[in-house]
């Protein structure tokens, strides 16, 4: 997962941890299986830390939406 993160310019330890945590929650290939994650990870306006931060925000929103559906 570290090498996959690096492919998106996510290399700082804390940022890689966000990427790896996302992979643990959504699956190792979340970056290609979830179009919204792909959009964040390939956004040319974001650098690595920006992508990691937006990815974290997306994951939080994703799970909040799932929780609301289940209520």
Offer a concise description of the structure.
This protein is 75% helix and 0% strand. It has five helices and no strands.
Query: What is the β-strand count?
Result: 0
Give the strand content.
under 5%
Strand-and-helix sequence, N→C? Answer: HHHHH
Q: In whole angstroms, how far apart are the ends?
A: 33 Å
Q: Give helix % range.
A: over 70%
Shape: globular
Strand-pairing-aware structural class: mainly alpha
Mean pLDDT: 96
Number of helices: 5
Q: What characterizes the major β-sheet?
A: none
**Which spans of ≥5 residues are poorly predicted at pLDDT below 50?**
none
Rg for CA atoms: 12 Å
SSE inventory with pairings:
Blueprint: H1 2-6, H2 13-26, H3 30-33, H4 35-41, H5 48-70
Helix pairs in contact: 2-5, 4-5
Structure description:
By secondary structure, the protein is mostly helical. The protein is 75% helix and 0% strand. It contains 5 helices and no strands. Helix 2 runs parallel beside helix 5 (48-70) and helix 4 (35-41) runs antiparallel to helix 5 (48-70). The longest helix is centred in the last third of the chain and has 23 residues, at 48-70. The protein is globular.
Give me some keywords for this one.
globular, 71 residues
